[in-house]
Specification:
Elements (H helix, E strand, L loop, with lengths): L22 H14 L13 E2 L3 E7 L11 H7 L3 E6 L5 E7 L13 H16 L5 E7 L5 E7 H12 L13 H11 L5 E6 L8 H8 L3 E8 L11 E5 L6 E5 L3 H25 L2 E6 L5 H12 L1
Parallel strand pairs: 4-5, 4-7, 7-8, 8-11
Antiparallel strand pairs: 1-3, 2-3, 5-6, 9-10
Helix pairs in contact: 1-8, 3-4, 5-6
Length: 308
């Protein structure tokens, strides 16, 4: 297995990247994803469903209402009666990555930015999701321009993913599309049952609940939430100006106040707990990754546990 870390851009001080991605851990991730969706992986078994595909299941006489494009002209010529092909349905797994590229993802006070962790998650899952003939599609939101890259196999799928990841940093302020918009767009594009991985910090409005509920009704959805330690607690560093990067709103605070720090921590915990409850109520599998320390091993552990 080629190390997915080789697909990452060279780190810079401004964009440190997700850090080392050990091949052994990636292999464990490959096994976890493979087993989680073994009923959809191409090549693991022959489909017993009939539909549009490339492998012939049987021939049968044409009946009114059949798609004339399915008529097999060789069989028709031999028998003198119209016959149609009935194929085994293709069971290629399609994975959709719904990536948050909003300005809030540029925040990071620990080992890396939230965008760097998102990049690592996307590359790791994207690398594994384009093997065995499976396909990868990408939908981004929150930037100056939204994008949707249709599912592609192998290297082509990865190139599309890297192009989405390495775009220009978003400008301050709200992006062109919200998470809710991206989920609606993904639902419209995903025509077969797919694995949908939403990678975001889930900041901002909560209008995404209904479209996520509708998406989860048709697809296997995993929510990867990325946090930074300073979003959950304030350090004691004196006077600070806190800025919401997506709205531009500013607030001057005195972090020397212990009571203020405690209230901030309680409010931040409550706000994140609400996100967790919303995702759980929808039935979406949810994992939290941090910009501090190793993010890959917790992702592998989560997928193993959710499979069990």
């Amino acid at each position: 297995m080629r190390n997915a870390g080789a697909l990452l851009a060279r780190p810079t001080p401004a964009r440190p990247g997700p850090g080392p991605m050990a091949e052994g851990v990636l292999r464990a991730l490959d096994i976890s994803i493979g087993r989680r969706v073994e009923g959809l992986l191409a090549g693991d078994f022959r489909s017993n469903l009939l539909g549009t595909g490339t492998e012939l299941a049987m021939m049968r006489p044409y009946v009114a209402g059949d798609d004339v494009r399915r008529i097999d002209w060789n069989a028709t010529a031999r028998t003198g009666e119209p016959y149609v092909r009935v194929d085994l349905a293709e069971r290629v797994l399609v994975t959709w990555l719904v990536l948050d590229v909003s300005v809030s993802m540029q925040f990071g006070t620990a080992d890396r930015r939230k965008a760097d962790v998102a990049e690592g998650v996307a590359v790791a899952i994207g690398h594994l999701s384009t093997r065995r003939g499976n396909r990868l599609g990408v939908v981004t939101f929150g930037g100056s321009e939204s994008s949707a890259i249709p599912p592609r196999q192998g290297r082509v799928g990865l190139v599309g993913l890297l192009r989405a990841l390495r775009g220009e940093p978003p400008e301050d302020g709200p992006g062109a599309t919200s998470l809710a918009d991206a989920l609606v767009r993904t639902g419209a594009l995903a025509r077969q049952r797919s694995l949908v991985v939403v990678v975001s910090d889930f900041r901002g409005d909560r209008e995404w609940r209904r479209p996520l509920l509708e998406l989860a009704g048709h697809h296997d959805v995993v929510a990867v939430e990325i946090r930074d330690p300073r979003e959950q607690e304030l350090p004691d560093v004196g006077l600070l100006w806190l800025v919401d990067p997506e709205t531009g709103r500013q607030l001057r605070v005195d972090t020397r106040s212990r009571r203020l720090r405690e209230r901030f921590a309680v409010a931040a915990t409550a706000e994140r707990s609400q996100v967790t409850r919303m995702l759980t109520s929808i039935g979406v599998r949810h994992v939290v990754l941090s910009t501090s320390g190793d993010w890959l091993r917790p992702l592998v552990t989560f997928l193993r546990r959710s499979r069990a």
